[in-house]
Amino acid sequence: MSRFNLVLLVHAHQPVGNFDGVVEHAYQKSYLPFVQLLLRHPFLRVGLHYSGGLLEWLEKAHPEYFKSLKTLVERGQVELLGGGFYEPILIAIPRQDAREQIERLADYIALHFGQRPRGAWLAERVWEPQLPSILAPAGVEYTLVDDNHFLNAGFDPGQLFGTFVAEDQAHAVRLIPGLKSLRYLIPFRSTDDVVEFLRGAAREHPGGIAAMGDDMEKFGVWPGTYDHCYVNGWLERFVEALEANQNWLMTVPPGEIVSSHPALGRADLATCSYAEMMEWSLPTSARVRFQALEKEFASREDVLAFLRGGFWRNFLTKYPESNLMQKKSMLVSRKLRHLETKFTGDAASLKQLNEAKTDLLRGQSNDAYWHGIFGGLYAPHLRSAVWGALVRAEAAIDSASHRGASFAGLDRFDFDFDSHEEIYFTTNRAAVLLSPKDGGTIAAIDFRSAGVALINSLMRRPEAYHARLAQTNAGPGQVASIHDQVRAKEPGLEKLLRYDRWARHAFRLLVFPQQRTQEDYENLRLGENEAIAAGAFRIREATPAKVILTSETPGEWKVEKAFSFSSPKESFRVACDLKLSYTGKVPAKMDVGLELIVNCLAPDAPDRYIEVAGKRNPLCWSGAAPASQLRLVDEWQKISVTVHAPKARDYWVAPVETISESEEGFERIYQGSQVLAVWPVEFQPGHVWTGRLTFTVSLLR
To answer: Residue 474: what pLDDT?
Structure first.
């Protein structure tokens, strides 16, 4: 039997903004024991990829780990791969930024390990046909994509035991197909099963290649895998099995395979990712139908090869919160590139500009932009890290553009590319994005003085997996792929499901019958007037001093919202003056509410709280507060938000909590607090009511 080649490409990554304790846990349970295994078994030769952000953490927290990696590289056992430094989805960022990301990681690896990477790991294996003309000019010779990329393009499974060439605009890269069968065999089936699969492949494809690309975290971090892989010795037995069969089977790093084995041919692949990702990206109703089709054709591999979900960009449609972040990063990138073309500053200014560029690249880290079992869109600390990096980058760029002077500006353009005009107000202290078409609300408030995005919440919406909540269990069971587990962090989560009617924007006007209560508000039972809450508004005036919006919806209610912005000492203030006109024929007793959304991230931490009449409540507090002033404090981020609504009867406060799916199971996640200032009003025909609310964010000292 000709020698058969096994290519193992193992990827390690931690999101920008992840907690040190989480990363340290991954280090102890996965990154360290995996490398120790390699050091014990020089026979096992693999490709390893670490994202740049994780390498920076390892360099600082565990410099001894770098020594181990360097030993493995020097003895030719490990090939280190590059990619985007902060693990962006390359097709979701400007080409210039993509090249910067790739070259920055390549430079880092060359500096620390003496070897410039030839290959690149694609974040989430997201492929689009134009990628060769992005990768090749940045020095990338090859990458790995999943076998379903090829199967969707019409390749037969038996063709995928070699490499291929992909080309765009006369730029070519080699593609290594990663086999899903190996991803699910390793380490979840017996070592005998893995060897038998490889033996069969060797018989069918003598001298060929079988490749697997997957996460290092599946060896120790995924539930149950540390005991399975290390305590119970699955990985040790696996390596011993490979060594016992080295008369016909050898492990080879991916770059060596690309050099020694000519490509089997050309591959023109469509937009694709791994199968689970493409399912997750589908809108919820489509995902439910897709799952039914998969079940119906479960025994028809010939059909399943052509049954595919959406593609990564669907997340920008499915989750407007993701689209807003992505468009923010694009805006910051445009500002940066424009400034670079005319930059003539001194060394200190150049340093500031480079720091802004690093923040921009950090803000492109992929995890907070999508959601599946992995993916951090539902994780507010990851969204906060991305938003914070982009806020800091834009603030530094705007400061450099104005040569450090105070400024206030206003632009009108389609910020989020939905064909509707937004209003973007910027100053050296803050940035505010107003959405006239969505109830005249504010979609984002950046407090630049602290590098904080204050709204940063998430709409509670149906997800396909919500139907499985009743099937969960919290007990240990058989070790399985993370895609096959159904677990929950606490019982009864299905009782907490509720779905928002509107995006979680601030300054939304809610008009509803007076018999409604705070409990109705928390449970989304106000029965508010839809046209007022989310109807389109017309821009009557827009200057850096004031923005006036008027409702366009026909009917017996007319609304005017006048926003003004100011910067008291170390603070930024948004004032909203309301004018609500009633032209109905009969009197109407209504409550008028103006809603704010603020996310301080940690619902139970003692240094984050809601202060009412001198009493501190945790962020997860729910209730009614009869007071004219309310304060939300985040001592960790060193900010406070003061809400003042003169003549309001009370504030209704409730946490915004989502139920989402993660690698550890279903969990409840705090997405911020909703605060409703409530005024009771008896409207007579022709009555005009006015109200005012101020929102002031300040630095804590």
So the answer is: 43
CA–CA gap between residue 24 and residue 10 (Å, rounded): 19
* Cβ-contact 186, 194 below 8 angstroms: yes
> Last residue of a domain, which of 223, 238, 269?
269
Q: Give the distance, in angstroms, between the CA of residue 271 and the centroid of all CA atoms in the same chain.
A: 20
Looking up residue 196, the CATH number of its domain turns out to be 3.20.110.20
Spatial CA neighbour of 520 closest among 621, 647, 652 = 652
Q: What sign does the dihedral 530-536-537-538 (CA atoms) show?
A: negative
Round to whole Å and give the CA distance between 454 and 601: 10
The answer, as to whether pTM is greater than 0.90, is yes
What is the extent of the structural domain holding 61?
4-269
State in Å, rounded, how far the first CA of the chain is from the last one: 73
- As a residue count, the chain comes to 701
Q: What are the angstrom distances between the C-alpha of 75 and each of 11, 33, 64, 631?
A: 20, 19, 17, 60
- Residue 695 to residue 337: CA distance in whole angstroms: 33
CB atoms within 10 A of CB 689: 16
Tokens 């998430």 belong to 458
Q: Is residue 466 part of a domain?
A: yes
Amino acid at 346: D
Domain-located, residue 379: no
The predicted pLDDT at position 491 comes to: 85
Extract the residue ranges of the chain whose pLDDT is less than 70. 1, 375, 470-486
pLDDT at 293: 93
What's the CA gap between 84 and 364, in Å, rounded?
10
Each residue of 210-221: pLDDT tens digit?
999 999 999 999
Q: Which residues are catalytic?
A: 124, 215
Phi, psi of 193 (to 5 degrees): -65, -40
Site of tokens 């001298």: 207
